[in-house]
Amino acid sequence: MIKFPTIADAYGWDLAGTDTYTTLVTPSRDMENILISLGGENDALVSLDGGVTNHIYVPAASIIVLDAIKLQEGVAIQGKNASGGSAYAELAVTVW
Length: 96
Prior knowledge:
Number of strands: 8
Oligomer: single chain
Low-confidence stretches: none
CATH architecture: Sandwich
């Protein structure tokens, strides 16, 4: 069962996508839940290891919630365009 936070432990966002990874949020402690939301008409990729690996494909206008995953303290969660030149809009991440 996913326990949603009453106050997010950490959150971040990027309003306009880029073709290279940009940091959305860096957890200040180990966490195990993530909520990703994406507006607009273009897709995004999210990396949980500082941009080394494409972990999560995020379709446009969607929300993804994952629990029981390892989010390490001090390791940036980053986002980038799923396709070169197709900038996403309003990519937001909350972790707890």
